[in-house]
Amino acid sequence: MQTILDRQFNDLPDDVAFCRNCVVSNQRPRTLFNEHGVCSACQWSYEKDNVIDWESREQELERLCDQHRSRDGSFDVVVPGSGGKDTAFVAHQLKHKYGMHPLCVTWTPFEWTDIGWQNFRAWNNAGFDIILGQPNGQLHRKLARLAFELKGDAWEPFAYGQKAWAFHMAARFGIKLIMYGENGELEYGGSTKYKHKPKEGPEEWTHEYYKGSSVDDLIRAGRDRGLLSREEEMQETVRWYKAPHPDVIAAQGIEMHWFSYYRKWIPQENWYYAARHCGFRANPKGRSEGTYTKYASLDDKADGFHWYLSYMKFGMGRCSRDVQTDIRRHHLTRDEGIALVRRYDGEFPAEHYDWFLDYLGIDDGFFWQVMDSYRRVSKVWTQADGEWRLTHVVS
């Protein structure tokens, strides 16, 4: 089997268990269960509804904005995003409720979907300045190809830019405040390290977001395998995938905050808000492949494969993620969620499959070879008589 740079598997429990409140299992990296069998994200959801003083936290946000708001209308906050519902919500709130002057920055998807491009343009036309980062296409494809095989997620080079591009643009324009949307680790079941803190730094990225292997680890693997040349490794573009040097960040006083620390994060309400104020539109096909929802993760043709690999590795795909979120926000009961997971989770993302193979420069046989390699190291699949069977399904 090929080398695997996804180092999360070693930390996963051997005994698979599902949350008694939602449908997440303990195979979701960094998810912890309490003595009642309830996952960390559901515990946080309870705290959001019953413990957190949101009025006090919004006052913190107002003070933060007062500290950074420009007097002359110049850009005073960087808002990263693609024009999806969450980006549009955060940018519009900062501009129209808190009087900020956002510079929006977008690390380009691998390939826009039609609805993704439409929403991006609508966001722009709703009155926002956007800087679009388009990395070197040849290098980006090679990194995606490497990440697909070695990390089980071709989408990861997009994650690199999604995190780092905002810091580079903040440094370039002398802006001290970056405002992301949600703390995904906290909201969706990962680390609770920053439950009561509004910000984190780039030093967390490798462990929390990059599966335990850094950008440099992936680039070295590409060089060792002969897929990346020394010249490509030294390209100026490579630095856009990594945060600016810590000394630069410290000298310029750049800080990244989460909007979800200050305001209760409810994705479905963000959808309604973005549709009303920024022209956001849901998937015209009625639902996205692999799930029942139609308003999340619409931008990129690669998104479906990001979720499908999650299903291969951990037994939880796109529908499982949506159900977890909706149960925690009281939009679904657990029984309703289980029925949806059983119906849609693991549905193959066929619509953009030919594009995906072409983009990575692989064939159907190699695609399924990689799928099998991750099912072998997972704790939720077994193979018998040449057939794969998911051994742990929420019930």
List keywords for this structure.
plasmid, three-stranded mixed sheet, 395 residues, N-acetyl_sugar_amidoTrfase, 47% helix, Rossmann fold, three-stranded parallel sheet, mainly alpha, single chain, globular, 8 strands, N-acetyl sugar amidotransferase, transferase
Description:
With 395 residues, this protein is mainly alpha-helical. It has a domain at 54-262: Rossmann fold, CATH 3.40.50. Helices cover 47% and strands 8% of the residues. The protein contains 18 helices and 8 strands. The chain has helices spanning 40-50, 54-68, 85-96, 114-125, 137-151, 156-173, 184-188, 205-208, 215-224, 230-233, 246-252, 259-262, 267-278, 303-314, 318-328, 334-344, 353-360, 364-377, and strands at residues 77-80, 102-107, 129-133, 177-180, 199-200, 255-258, 381-384, 387-390. A 3-stranded parallel β-sheet has the order 1-2-3. Strand 1 (77-80), helix 3 (85-96) and strand 2 form a beta-alpha-beta unit. The longest helix is centred in the middle third of the chain and has 18 residues, at 156-173. It is globular and about 70 Å long. The mean pLDDT is 96.
Brief write-up:
This protein has 395 residues and is mainly α.
Low-confidence stretches: none
Order of helices and strands: HHEHEHEHHEHEHHHHEHHHHHHHEE
Major sheet attributes: 3 strands, parallel
Number of helices: 18
Kindly report the spatial arrangement of strands forming the biggest sheet.
1-2-3
What is the share of helical residues?
40-55%
Number of strands: 8
Percent of sequence in beta strands: 5-15%
CATH architecture of the domain at 54-262: 3-Layer(aba) Sandwich
Q: In one word, what is the shape?
A: globular
The separation of the N and C termini measures: 32 Å
Q: Whole-number radius of gyration?
A: 21 Å
CATH topological fold name of the domain at 54-262: Rossmann fold
